[in-house]
Amino acid sequence: MKLLHVCLLVILGHCFSYATPPTLAELDSIAGAFYDQGDYPNSVLSYQKLIELAKKEDKDSPFYANSLAALANVYREMGLYDKSEPLLTKAIALTEKNKETDVSYAHNLKQLGLLYLALGKYTEAEQIFLETLDLFSKILGEKDLDYAVNLNVN
């Protein structure tokens, strides 16, 4: 087992066994590190806990919506498409009200496009990717790095 992986398990165990819960940002970092290590089961557990805590704190927050999208992304990577789509749909609905000014909506929408691509729904995926690029262009401008990165669909 990789050293980072062992450290994350120790940290995660520490966070849930003491009275002081981890901050949302800490838990997000842990879940993301598990994902980066390819440890999807622990990433799922961490994101589920993060979602539970974020929902209690503020179910309308962008952090909650983005956590839903992150878990959906893990499920997509695992091939659990039926679990991914409802989470993305909810994340998109929560971030839609700020779609003209906040890139969270565009990022969540792009994740839905990637899911449709994996499902072979190429027409729907293409429409979503075009909408996403349009949003990134309007919000960030075409010279922004995030816009350029999103020209490449992966």
Beta strand % = under 5%
Order of helices and strands: HHHHHHHH
Q: Give the mean pLDDT.
A: 86
Radius of gyration (CA) equals 16 Å
Helix content range of the residues, please? over 70%
* CATH top level assignment of the largest domain: Mainly Alpha
The profile of the biggest β sheet is:
none
CATH architecture assignment of the largest domain: Alpha Horseshoe
Looking at CATH, which topology of the largest domain would you report? Serine Threonine Protein Phosphatase 5, Tetratricopeptide repeat
Number of domains: 2
Judging from the principal axes of the Cα atoms, what is the shape?
Answer: globular
Distance between the termini: 28 Å
CATH superfamily of the largest domain: Tetratricopeptide repeat domain
Which structural class do you get from the secondary structure elements?
A: mainly alpha
Poorly predicted tracts of residues: none
- Number of extended strands: 0
Number of separate helices: 8
Task: Spell out the blueprint of helices and strands.
Elements lengths: L2 H15 L6 H13 L3 H19 L3 H16 L3 H15 L7 H16 L3 H19 L4 H5 L5
